[in-house]
Structures are given as structure tokens and as C-alpha cells.
Amino acid sequence: MTSRCLSLFVGFVVVFVGLVSAVPAGAQDQREIDLIAKLGKEEIARREAAAAAAKEAEHQRLLEEQSRLRAVYQQYLGQARRTAQSAIKQKRKEVTQEQIDRLRRQARQIIDEVNDATKKRVPDELDPVFAELEKLIGLSADELLKSSEALSQARRKLGGNDLDWVDRTAILYALCENDDHAKVIAGNVQHREKLSDDEAMAIDECNRRRLLLGLQPTAIDYKLVECSRDHSKDMVEHNFFAHESPVEGKKTPWDRAKNFGTSASGENIAAGYGSGHAVTMGWWYSPGHLKNMMGRGHKRIGVGQHNKHYTQMFGG
Fold first, then answer.
1. Average pLDDT of each block of 10 consecutive residues along the chain (316 residues)?
2. How far apart, in whole angstroms, are the C-alpha atoms of residue 229 and residue 160?
3. Which of 174, 190, 197, 222 is least surrounded by CB atoms within 10 angstroms?
């Protein structure tokens, strides 16, 4: 009996093995391929999920870091602004408003009268008047830091953080003579992260000179910034240098501004300048560009940089 059962069991195993062996090799290979493919898809999905989670975590870290830096900048800006206002207020005690107004009238008259034939009047006549205004009611970054040891210490504690633009902004605030002007500068701070250092420098320097001359500062119109960048890029990529563009639909500054959903009242262009300060000084010594920068009707501004090409646009 035991022997018969054993024989039957062995026979069953032989039949089973035979059946397994009878499965076509191609089908077995396909099952293995399908299994590997399934496992591969699961592994890819797992890795993609892990990568997405890591990316989101890094994004959140960057947002938190930006938020922390904003708080640092805001705190330092408040301290720098109060210091700058105090320093300029002290300067104004030593000069009369009539003296300031007289110098401003002289400067604006030269700007109104100067042209390409008389452009030497800018360095010969305008610069000395402007330098006197800077001496009487202006403030440099060095003067700002020297006027307060507490501010200098605060700046040193912040280490490698780029605070040059914060110093410039504090000085602009201090130069404002009414709340409307201060609101413009406050609004411009909100755009700072979206500008290159040189774009921001060009706008700040233009506004600093306008404020010293008693003119209203210009508010950043980010659509004009994007429009200016686009024209600078076109000039580089299409190898031209002009206000009139050969690119279809972008012929004039007014066309280009309209394309970006805004309007323009003036445009300056430049090429070959290595910084926002340098390009501003280039425009300052060119009568037509100077008149544009100091135009009384301008309320908005945008500066766009591409390589060493710059476009500066104004809006009413």
C-alpha cells in the first residue's frame, strides 16, 4: 500500500514537471519581462515621488530663507532710513530753502536749454550746481554709515548679505519731501527681487537725481521693465541699435509698450556699459537722454538689461 502511494506521488510529480516544461519558452520570457516592467514602473514612480517631495522641500526652504532675508532687510532698512533722515535733517538746518530752490532752478534751466551743440554745459555748468545740491542736502552711502556707529555695527553683523541697495533705498526715502514721494519709493522696494542689480541701480540713481532736483521719483512699472528687457535682447540678437525695431510688431517704443499691456512716454537706449551706474552717467552727459531722465511728466519707469545693452522706458 505504501509502495503504491509512493508510485502514484512520483507519477504526479513527473506529470507536473512535464506540464511546466511544456510551457513555451517565449511565454515564460514575456511573463518575466512583464514582471520586470511592472517593478520598473513602480520604482520609477517611487523615485519620481521622492524627487517631487525633495523639490517641494527645497522650494519651501528657499521660501523660508527669502522670508527671513526680507525680515532682515526690512529691519535694517528701517534703521538705515531713520539714520539717513536724521543726517539729512541736520544738513538742512544749515541751509535755507531759498538756497535749495535757487540751485534747483539753475539746474533745471540748464537741462531745459542744453542740446547736442552745447552739451559741454552739462559737465561745465550742471555738474557744479548738482554737486552743490549733493553737498547741501544729499547723502552718500559712506556718509550714511559714518553718521551712525550703531548702523555700521548692524551692517557688519549681517555679514555677507548684500545691503548696498538697502542703503540706497534708505537715502531715497530720506530725500523724499512728501508722503507721495515716499509711497513711490516704498512701492519700488516691492519690485527689488525681480530686478538685476544693475537694473535696480539705474532706477535708483535716476530717482536720486530727480529727488535732489526737486522732481517726483518715478515708480517702477514692471511691464515697462519686461518691455525694456525685450528690446535690449532684440538689439543684441538682431544686431541693431535703435529706437525703431526691425522686429515685426515692435517697431516703436509705443508699439512695444502696448504689447506688454502698458504705455510709454519716452525711451533711452545704451550699449557697452558695465553697470547700472555707468549707463546712468552715460545718459546724464547726453542732452536728449538727460532731458528724458529728468522729464517732469514722467511718473513710471522700467529699465531692462541684456548683456551690456540697456533700455530705459518712462510712462506718464
1. 41 40 60 74 78 80 68 86 96 96 98 98 98 97 94 84 88 96 96 95 98 98 98 97 97 97 97 96 98 96 97 97
2. 29
3. 190
